[in-house]
Amino acid sequence: MPVIASWSAVRLSADREERDRAPVVGTTVDHLTETYRAHYRSLLGLAALLLDDTASCEDVVQEAFIRVHSARNRVRDPDKTLAYLRQTVVNLSRSALRRRILGLRLLSKPMPDMASAEEGAYEQLERDQLVKALRGLQRRQREVLVLRYFADMTEAQTAETLGISVGSVKAYGSRGIAALRVAMEAQQA
């Protein structure tokens, strides 16, 4: 048993020495620094072709170098570092454009106008007056006006709902609006 234990210890020690002598795989920090110095401007130009403002271009290129630095062990061949950086710049530029387009879409939607407190109170008073005037109408006139103008039904749909003819809907609607106008003017005076 001791011979086997010592043999495995010798083998482990030999494996460690071999790994220590093996070249480092991946892009080194020094190589990445040299790549930064040599190709920063060309990568900035690439980003400028894809984006429209200098600040965004600089941000994209710097972010690309940060990402490549973080993943430098995955770039096995140092000669491919520049290609990896270029692809990262292109991908980050696309992402920046997507975010910008999404922001423009959200900003292009008009914000709803908010009524002031006074306008809201005035509208509430008008609404109360309208409801009071509607209650003073004949039942059929009220039904026709509510279905036509509040439920947004057509004359045919209103006639079908109430079980009356389209001509009756027109007549009740016309008389109802006239009566409503008189009632609203009486409340205002």
UniProtKB/TrEMBL annotation:
Domain named RNA polymerase sigma-70 region: residues: 36-100
CDD domains, A to Z: Sigma70_r4
UniProt KW keywords: DNA-binding, Sigma factor, Transcription, Transcription regulation
InterPro entries cross-referenced by the UniProt entry: RNA_pol_sigma-70-like, RNA_pol_sigma-70_dom, RNA_pol_sigma-E_actinobac, RNA_pol_sigma70_r2, RNA_pol_sigma70_r4_t2, RNA_pol_sigma_r2, RNA_pol_sigma_r3/r4-like, WH-like_DNA-bd_sf
RNA polymerase sigma factor 70 region 4 type domain residues: 128-180
Molecular functions (GO terms): DNA binding; sigma factor activity
Keyword DNA-binding: yes
Biological-process GO terms, alphabetical: DNA-templated transcription initiation
PANTHER family tied to this protein: ECF RNA POLYMERASE SIGMA FACTOR SIGM, RNA POLYMERASE ECF-TYPE SIGMA FACTO
Entry-linked NCBIfam families: SigE-fam_strep (TIGR02983), sigma70-ECF (TIGR02937)
Family label: Belongs to the sigma-70 factor family. ECF subfamily.
Listed name of the protein: RNA polymerase subunit sigma-24
Organism lineage: Bacteria, Bacillati, Actinomycetota, Actinomycetes, Kitasatosporales
